[in-house]
Every structure is written in C-alpha cells, then in structure tokens.
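New here. Invent one.

***
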Amino acid sequence: MAQKKDPIKTYDARWEVSEFDDQEVQRLIEATLGYAQIIGVDTLVFARDARLGCARIMEIGIKVAVDAGFQVFACFDPISTPLSYFVAMQTSVNFPQTMGLTITASHNPRQYVGIKYTVPTVEAIGYDCGPLGGLKKVKELYHQNDFVLEKSEGGSLAILKNPVDDYIDYTFQLAGVKSGELQGLSVILDTFNGSAGPELYRALTIAGVKVTPLQLTPNGEFPTGSPNPTSQGKMNAAIDLARQQNSDLIIGIDGDGDRIVFGDQQGVFSAGFVTIPILKSVLSEAKDTSPQRVLYDPKVNPMALLKWAELNAEPVLFRNGHSQIKAFMKQTGAIAGAEESGHFYHRLPLGDMDVSGENSLYTILLFLKSVHQNKSIIAEVRTMQDEIYTSGEFNFEFPDDILRDQAMKAVISLFESDQAKLTTHSENGEDLEGTVVYKGVDHGNGKISLAEDWYAAYVRTATNEKGVVRSYISSCTAEAGERLRGKIEQILRDEFQGKEIE
C-alpha cells in the first residue's frame, strides 16, 4: 500500500483531511488496535468533537474495532476533549483495560483532523511516551508491511448518552462548588464554535455566573478561523464586550476545549499568573502541608514562579508536551501543571483511579472560586501582568534547516555573551527540546529569587515545520524585553534573512 505523510506526531496523530484516504485512515486504526492488543486493551471508548472530518474517522474506527473483537463504547455527540477523558475514566471504573480515542485536531484550522490517545488507566500517550513507547509503537506497526490486524468474534458496540450531566456533577464536587455559589460574577465566554461551548455555558450558569457567550454553537467550519484563543487578537471581541458590559472576566476556549485563556477588560492574562489563584484553591484543600510539586513549561515567567513558591508550591521545570507532562505528573506525584500555551493539568481522582490530565471546567471553577471569594484577585493579577513584559512567541522561517540552525546558534551566542544561564535539559535529565535562558533568576529547591534586571527566554526549532526558529521572552520591564527582542530579531531577520511568520 502506498503511504503518504506519516500521521503520527509528537503528542497525537494529526493530519489534513485531504492527506489521507480511507484506506490509510483504516491502516492507522489497525496499527492503533494492534498496539492496543499488545498492551492488553479489551475495551475502546470513541469520542469526537464538532470538527468536520471527525465523522469519517469515527465510522472507520468503530467498524475496524468491532471486527477485531473489541468491546466498543461510542459517544456520537460532539463533546470536548476533557469530557472525552471523563468518559474514558467512567468506563475504566468497570473496564480497567480501556483505551480512549478522541477524534479532534485541537486548535488547528478546520481542514485538520486527528486522534488523541489514552491507555489504561486513562494515561495520555505521545511519541516515545507511554507503554512500549506509545505512539512510537503505533507508528512502527503502521509502517510494518507484514502487520495484519486479525478479525475476531465477540466485538460489540454500545452507544453512550452524552455524559455532560455526570461531568458537571463530578467537577462541581471536585472543585467544592455548589449550584448558585458563584452568583455575582460576570463573564464573557468565547468558545470559537468549538465543542466545549455548550458544556461550559451550562455549567457556569448552574454555578450562578452571569455568562455572555460568543461563538457558542459548535461548528466545524470554524467561521472565524483557527479556534485558538491564544493567537494574537483572537480575544479582542471578548475584551471589547467586557468593557461595554463591565464584565469581571473574559474566558476563551479552543476548538476541543483543553486550551484556556483568562483575562479582564484590559486584556488576557499569562497562564503563569492565572495559576496563582488556582493553586490557592487547590493547596487550601491539601491535607499534606509540605511543598507540593507543580510542573511548568519553559515559557512560564519567573515572576509567576516566585508567587507559586510563596504559596508553598515547588515549581518543577519540564518540557512542552501534553502527553509528556501528564506522564511526568503521574511519575513525580505533582498536583498540577501549567503551560503558557493555556493548558492546565490536575490530579483527577475517580474511584480507585488517580488520573493526571485536563478538566477545563475544573480549572475554570477553581479560578472563579478564588475570584468570588476575593474579587481583588483580578486587580492583583492585572498588576502582576502589567509589571512585567512577555513577548508572546515570535517565529522566523529560513530556507532550510542548515541556515535555521546557524541563526539559532547566533541567538544562543548572544545570551552566552550576556553571561546568562543556559540549559537544554530539566533537573531530571529530560530534553527540553530547546534552550531555556535565565538572567538574574536564581532557583533551587523550589525557591525563586529575582534580580532587578532579570529576564528569561526560550528558543527552539519548530516540531512540525521545517526551517523555523521559535522564540519567547519574559523580562522585568517592557523596555528591557523589547530591547532584547530587537537584538534577537536583528540576528534572525537581518543577519540570516529569516522571514517572520505567525
């Protein structure tokens, strides 16, 4: 069989709908189920969001799974990825050897589709992450010419009702929030026509929040473009409406509901600062009074980490990567994690399980619960946000990887000449897939201290695109940050003729 591009990526399987025909999609499903058989899976949960390409993938996947003898549960309603994880958790209570397959392409444009995976018990996998290397093993089977998924008797299909009520009840109990308890808060909720919109609107209304929705109806056409609230300018409509209505907060959610942006009438907040009131909620309920590990990715700013440490959290640096972060949370017993891209991770108990993963409703309820108890938190987060500089990710493309690597080396030399501290690996030896830079930032044993003129940066090559350097800066002042950004851009654009891209 002729094969086109490989569908397996770092965190999941993802591709443009036109790239793979039905035979190739079937081959991916067969490789997935071959992997499932090897690790002892006997039950599958299929879920999907509103993305246009999902139905075709689900149809093929269910048929292949039933023909191969698996017990299959399927939720056909478009639901968010966090809700799909909850379905996998519910199913795993009775069928521990359950694999979850969520058909989505997250925040990507409408022409994309893909699959996110969990294995027993509700453990997210990625490439070289999970049993037998996770998706690395799936990729091996996908390309293995002599691999054939054998058909077997005994396969079955059961259609699940939409579990949103169970999800809301579970999450309210986990967050310690009762019906009507958050009355007095007003929120602009922009869900970009993704599948999480109805779930979150319903839940927040039950909690007593006054919610003004934007782009609430799930629509796989994504009429406003890529459903990514972290993209520049995407939250402007919500910010403008918050000013008009004098709303307390804005919340933005991506296409599959696992990426969250918070903000106020003036703009969006850094995920690192948003994590502060969330940690206040979580740590206030913790029985263990010793410092609790909380993971952060290389773009979380040092000022936020300083505030985390003051709350009796132990900030632990880890690489970008949703599956990898969740696996490391489980390995280290971390109670939470945050990525500056808007991903928040928690320890989620159900029955005898303790799952490390995303529950966007839980994240939002924890944040709103803290704000409801003390509305001055909004002003405190805004003050911190305005006190420092963050660049957002800025990207330059080069004709080839050779010139890209030369350009990145020159940027690294700039930091070295400034006597900044550079690292490419976390304390436990994990590759950070880029260079993390600190100047005037001292941290060790969970303690953080900042000099008056500190800055931090993260420079890396793009994972899925050739010839691209991605850079991110945070610093003590806007003046210092813009000056540093100017130096980096001068190297990338003027010295190496890079082209700035989104």
Observations:
- The first strand starts at residue 13 and ends at 16.
- The chain has a mean pLDDT of 94.
- The first helix runs from residue 22 to 38.
